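User: Sorry, what's this?
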Amino acid sequence: MEKIASFTINHLSLQPGVYVSRKDHIGSEVVTTFDLRMTSPNEEPVMNTAEMHTIEHLAATFLRNHSEYGEKTVYFGPMGCRTGFYLLLAGDYESKDIVPLMKEMYVFIRDFHDEVPGASARDCGNYLDMNLPMANYLAKKYLDEVLTDIAEDRLVYPE
């Protein structure tokens, strides 16, 4: 069996960034999958599920309500390894194209101090597993250390 594309990336040299993971062609349409890597794989501790779950709720709500990207958002969700998130957008994009959107989204998450959307028993299958203060902290860290003045090597996967 062949390795899937995401398992061919050298995770020993991968650093936090915004990467194009893959582009899928569905008929005449393109779906771009982004790797929003928030922690350094196999170097830093992974994120806990509560803060990842909170980021997922906030980011998905932000993206689906965005005036430009709302209708282009196919999916936003966590990586199983808990080092980041995948964002799937309808359209043919490069990493640099979405940096302004990511800055806007992570500022929203950093500054969010209300009830987390969908964090109720009626709306979510694990609504008690949330950690807003830690989600705020991680969003600030990603903004400060990665997204603000993002370096070119944080936009293209390492060799």
